[in-house]
Amino acid sequence: MTQDNATPLAQDPNALPTTSGPLKTVTVGGTRYTLLGTAHVSAESADDVRQLINSGTFDAVAIELCDARHHSMDNPDAMGEQDLFQVFKQGKAGMVAASLALGAFQQRIAEQSGIQPGAEMRAAVEECRTRKLPLMLVDRDVGITLKRIYRNVPWWQRFSLFSGLIGSVMSRQDVSKEDIEKLKEGDMLEATFSEFAAESEALYTPLIRERDRYMALRLAEEAPPGSYQNVLVVLGAGHLKGTGEHLEAPLPDNPTAERESLEATPPPSKLWKAAPWLITALVITGFVIGFSRNTELGWQLVIEWFLINGILSGGATILALAHPVTVIATFFAAPLTSLNPTIGAGFVAAGVELYMRKPKVRDFSTLRHDVTQLKGWWKNRVSRTLLVFILATVGSAVGTWVAGFRIAGALFGSGAA
């Protein structure tokens, strides 16, 4: 990238304005990287960014944003413009719900503090656009980070992490001063998971350490040594030390290969992938054993399987205030989808809900605002459909286990024939 029509560079790169945030400089192969540690909820940090860019010292700027967050910044309604049916089909409903929850948390922070989190990133985007400076987005996609967190932590910790995430952002209480202070050192993800990160290496690695390395690798790709004279790198103060150390160490000859490895989502274990098929096989085997003993027992097991699955999954959609047709469809679909791992009850429930209550233009335009309040998740048709999907899925999973144990008890319990 070139510096067309940009203001000539200042002669002395050391003559930088005084900043409220920490600065770290690293020179590699003739390129000087100036890392500015910012506070994500701070008007002073936004002023720091403007002053540094306007000093004329830098011929390129890199910021701690990914393409998705940058697009969301330019188009706040981007989240609501997604094809909901494809979201469910591709298994992205959980990630979309988590992103909406993070956005709701961010909006509450903005309303309380009067400062939009990420104001310094927005300032960098605006100043680069005005001065026609190359802008590089060097952070990892937030969805990938969430997926790697999910895969990296033990399965028993996943529920507490994400229930904590959803619970904290849907709370009606004001965001505490401590949470706002955490945002001054990290970012939205770090503030949300900070309670767990300090004590969990499995969480700290994808949340902090990997992103430090990732941003250094992106700089090696987008602004390799010698490509620019002076590069300003705007990132949260919590990433300053780690990213700086990676830049100071010898950079790999092929940064792309390592960077792509940090974008890969670890596949689930073979046992985890096989579990749904194993459960299906066990349930069907239970039916066969029941009918082999006597027809009455066999039909009893089938009816109990149907009712337990249907009631728990269909009842869960009632909690989401789903359309009555959705509730009925989920009731009949859940017992069948539980025996077919290729399709889930949540997918059926969401599909019917979309058909019965197709979201309107207003729902998409007010989505970000509606989800800042607990009742808004049920009021908005987009977010309510997400709730229908999630709750139907959870209800079906619980129903499968409850009904499975009921079948096992009937066949092999003390009262079995």
UniProtKB/TrEMBL annotation:
Sequence segments annotated as region (Disordered): 1-23, 245-268
Tell me the InterPro entries matching this sequence. Answer: TraB/PrgY/GumN_fam, TraB_bac, TraB_PrgY-like
Q: Which residue windows are transmembrane per the record?
A: 274-291, 303-322, 328-352, 386-412
Q: Which Pfam families match?
A: TraB_PrgY_gumN
Keyword line: Membrane, Transmembrane, Transmembrane helix
- Protein name, entry field: TraB/GumN family protein
**Species for this entry:** Halomonas qinghailakensis
